[in-house]
Amino acid sequence: MTASFMDLVDVTIVNVAIPTITRDEGATASQIQWITAGYALAFAAGLITGGRLGDIYGRKRLFLIGIAGFTLASALCGFAANPDMLVASRILQGATAALMVPQVLSIVHATFPAHERGKVFGLFGAIVGLGAVTGPLLGALLTQWNLFGLEWRPIFLINLPVGIAALILGRKYISESKAPKALKLDLVGVVLVVIPLLMLLYPLTRGHELDWPLWGHLMMVGALPVFAILVAYERYKARKDGSPLIELPLFKVKSFAAGIAVQLTFGLVMGIFFLVWTLYMQEGLGWTPLKAGLTGVPFSIAVSFAAGISVQKLVPVFGRKVLQAGALTMAAGVLIYIWEADRYGMTISPWQMALPLVVMGVGMGLIVAPLTDAVLSEVPREHAGSASGLINTTMQMGNALGLGLVSVVFFGQLSDHVVPEQMTAEIVDAFQYALRYVAAVLVAIFLVMFALPKRPKQHLEGGEDEASAPSSPADSAGAADDDEQPVLVH
What is the pLDDT of residues 156-176, one digit of tens each? Predict the structure, then answer.
């Protein structure tokens, strides 16, 4: 849970501090996108590999290596001398996060029996909400306080004591687990995952700045055949030695395939919204980082509350309808936000934003926690690492693509040469324009959710299925008598 918390806090902290980094370091629009998208891209590209490495060498071991690397990368971000070094350090940070984060769901999946996993995922959703609250507030306070004259740098340096504590506690309390059969690392598959992601993201982030050159369009189109080559190679690898990077048979599980599609499109929404929202409040409305951070508190509390009740109370009764209600609720919140931003213009206040943010937060909370449970509910334990990596990868891939699309739906609406007074008004208009895209994607998510099963499998059967029965000492630990369970599950 600490790893997930650190990852989420790091993303939200950076969003709040982006305008300050831009002013202090003179970062360009593409560098702004790469500070956020570079992390997401490295994270997405490495997550499947990270999950597989955990299956092969031990999830606890990879978790601890990832925590150590993430802490070191955070230090490099904090001491970056210029925007280029910050971008490079953020990419390293994303790569090390890719080693620690997939182990979280893998450890949960391998430790707890199916009928108790819902409780853990409920806690996971609450941690997501807590991270969403803590990140913006910490980022705002640390940026505003300018501790020791370090300006925005403490937002990264704060990870050092947390990372060291996680290393010590993780070493003591986490039990080791591996895949039941020996696997090999698919290095060719790793390369074939990274290349098409770069071919899509790089032209998107640089396109507006370079006036959309022909080579950019060709690169994006060329990414599709590379993805096709990846699928063909993974099939060959599975036949050859049974150790492909991506377990393609997972996509034959309807709940998994549908969930992956939802994760991708939902990540796209998050990538667009959070960056343009930050720029709207600080660059458009001229608010301080603290005021912007406090404005997001109602949203974060709503996410945490809705995520906490969705798995435990709502999904067992209403199943898939909970996630679909979440998508429509979030879309309604976006439409309210567009209306308010248009009506109040530059005079809008934080309390006027509270209504659309709470509605959006409730919608998001209804999606984030039960979606993970639904996607993993029918996945065999031996593929837990690969499935976890794919779930996180598609979310981060969508996030990175969303951040890349900010060039189109936000920066593309801003004139190149305007006086500052006009620029603030243009930012407000560009924010509303971007939100229209967000609302449209949320409606698409609602439709894709019809492919999800009406109920997660354990809710249908009221207990464990064969595929999730304990199959190793590590697995059996999760099936012990209730009195021997960690307090966490109660």
Answer: 998 899 899 989 988 888 888
Among candidate residues 406, 410, 14, the one with its CA nearest the CA of residue 205: 406
pLDDT band at 388 (very low <50, low <70, confident <90, very high): low
Cβ atoms 140, 289 nearer than 8 A = yes
Render pLDDT for 307-358 as a digit per residue (tens, 0 to 9).
878 877 888 888 889 999 999 999 999 999 999 999 998 899 999 999 999 9
* Token reading at 248: 């393609």
Residue 400: which of 218, 262, 268 has the closest Cα? Answer: 268
The answer to whether 179 touches 90, Cβ cutoff 8 Å, is no
> Please, how many CA atoms are within 13 Å of residue 277, restricted to the half-sphere of its CB?
28
- Nearby residues of 359 by Cβ (< 8 Å), 6 or more positions away: 302, 329, 330, 332, 333, 336
Question: By the 8 A CB rule, do 57 and 66 touch?
Answer: no
Give the three-class secondary structure for 195. Answer: helix
Distances 47 to 216, 218, 374, 379, 444 between C-alpha atoms, Å: 26, 27, 20, 18, 26
Question: Residue 101 corresponds to which tokens in the numbers above?
Answer: 């984060």
Question: Which residues does 46 contact at the CB level (< 8 Å), separation at least 6?
Answer: 94, 95, 98, 99
Positive/negative CA dihedral, 144, 147, 149, 154: negative
Q: How many CA atoms lie within 13 A of 370 on its CB side?
A: 36
| Residue type at position 74 | S
Q: Is residue 230 within 8 Å of 55, Cβ to Cβ? A: no
Tokens 């029965």 correspond to: 469
Contacts of 10 (CB under 8 A, 6+ apart): 39, 74, 93, 97, 135, 156, 159
CA 294 to chain centroid, in Å, comes to: 22
What's CA 275's distance to the chain center, in Å? 13
Provide the sign of the torsion angle of the four alpha carbons 440, 445, 450, 454, taken in this order. Answer: negative
pLDDT of residue 386 exceeding 80: no
CB 312 within 8 A of CB 459: no
Q: How far is residue 79's CA from residue 206's CA, in Å, rounded to a whole number?
A: 26
Q: How many CA atoms lie within 13 A of 144 on its CB side?
A: 16
Percent composition of the chain: helix, strand, coil (DSSP 3-state, to 5): 85, 0, 15
Range of weakest confidence among 90-104, 307-321, 356-370, 435-449: 307-321
Secondary structure class of 28 (helix, strand, coil): coil
